[in-house]
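Attaching the record inline, Q. Sequence:
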Amino acid sequence: MIYLDNAATTQPRRELLDIFQKIEDEFFANVNSNHQAGRDAEKYVNKARKIVLDCLGVEQTHRVVFCSSATEANNLAIKGYALRHSKRGRHIIISNIEHPSVIECAKQLRDLFDFELTILSANHKGVIRPDDVRQALTKNTLLVSIMAVNNEIGSINSIKEIATIIHQHSRAVFHVDASQAIGKVTLPFDEIDMFSISGHKINGLKGSGALVMNKNIELIPLFSGGEQEYGFRSSTISPALAYTLALAIKESLQSEKKNTGSVAALNSLLRSHLSKSENIVLNSPEKGSNYILNVSVIDKKASVIVEALSNQGIMISSVSACHAKAASISYVVRAIGRSEDLARNTLRISFDHQTTIEEVQTFIQVFDEIMERIRS
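Structure, as predicted:
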């Protein structure tokens, strides 16, 4: 199999699977239990917190709330903060290309809890203009949530500039969905009030995620229960998931420069080839993430191409896996000004640091053959 759908999920590192199994076998006790086995298990959670904060460089200012996913972390950050501090203000700002877990969360606050919502439009490159954020801020703005890297087209937002604007011109807190950014683009973690991380996007395990947040922030928990995770996330935590997530974050950050260079060569090779085709429109900006290349097909059905490639053992996606079975159109591609037809026929090829040039060359060959063979 040639796997080129890494923006949906990456293959877990074998080392992390082995560590997960060892901890589950030997340190399975509940970390909240008041006995030696519980304390031994808790050591792995404490180690995990320290690793995450140290490698992100925020050990003095932030804390980690371990979650099941970035979707949960996004919901905890946005709903938890908005509902906890609604007396300070009821205005929320997001963009029109956010992950569904941000968009739907913000809309729910608007529709069910009477919050005011401003949805900023990305430009033709899929980037949110920092000045648009500044102009949208009001004295009533409570929260701004802008993603670092878009999961469909790979556009990169100016997080440092946006953070500076928010903190200089308002009392709002800044949340960032960093799922597609960790280990791929450099972020000013110490300048972001809250950011979400997903383990399975960085060769970690599914079911692991985290919300990293400033120590001064208070939230209403989504789950009521035993007051775990500083009282923000009640549930029996998995030491194995927390620890392997921490190791995945550490490895991705340590290897960021080396991996980005090798992936950039793969992206450049494929972009150069596809740009020569009259039947292909490139949607990913040139200065976007090297890990994602999104295109639209003019006279073919993307779903047919994806299936044909799958039959040849090559895995890519059409729309984001977050809503692939429920939608046939990319709202992100539509948002950057493409026609509805182009937004219905998108292909997303996404790389991992383990992807080889031989795999990309094979993809090119098979893709060209399929394009020649299938009808409009």
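Residues 106 and 278 are 39 Å apart (CA to CA). The chain has two domains: 2-9+256-373, 14-254.

More tomorrow.
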